[in-house]
Specification:
With 163 residues, the protein is mostly helical. It contains five helices and no strands. It is elongated. The mean pLDDT is 94.
């Protein structure tokens, strides 16, 4: 009797890297915004381009989990995944609301220096909910992902195909 070939399972180390980067950048952005002069359009444009990139990475990361990871875990891990996926999806909604508000304010701040303090406060709030979310996700999702998601499925997530 031959044993079936082993399928390589996902390596979630990349998740930790993305989370670390997101926590760091969203933690730094509010002070960068507060420190940019209202009359320094060039500095605001540079910070704004970076903020836009980080906001896009966050959106794509969560979209990847929502479209690929959570459905696979619910299908394969069933009872093991039901509670944590529900919590992750609920937290994604809260993060999406803060994300959307940051995106809404970004252009006005970049172009005209409008309400820098309000924009920075939105990013402070986003950093806070993101930090709590990633801490929980890093405890609960990796064991299930490494057990139920293949490398081939993992690399199909849009975050790994971002350009």
């Amino acid at each position: 009797m031959t044993t079936p070939p082993q399928v390589p399972m996902a390596d979630v180390g990349e998740m930790y890297l993305v989370h670390t980067m997101l926590r760091r950048e969203f933690g730094l952005l509010p002070d960068l915004i507060r420190g940019a002069g209202r009359n320094d359009a060039k500095h605001r444009a540079l910070i704004g381009a970076h903020a836009q990139l980080v906001l896009q990475i966050l959106h794509t990361h969560h979209e990847s989990e929502d479209l690929v990871l959570w459905p696979l875990l619910l299908e394969r891990a069933e009872a093991e995944a039901t509670e944590i996926v529900a919590v992750m999806e609920e937290q994604h909604h809260a993060i999406a609301a803060a994300h959307d508000e940051a995106v809404r304010r970004l252009s006005g701040w970049c172009r005209f220096g409008r309400d820098g303090e309000g924009f920075a406060t939105v990013l402070d709030d986003l950093a806070r909910v993101l930090t709590a979310h990633t801490a929980l996700e890093e405890k609960a999702a990796p064991p299930l992902t490494e057990k139920y998601v293949t490398v081939a499925e993992w690399v199909q997530m849009p975050i790994w195909r971002m350009q």
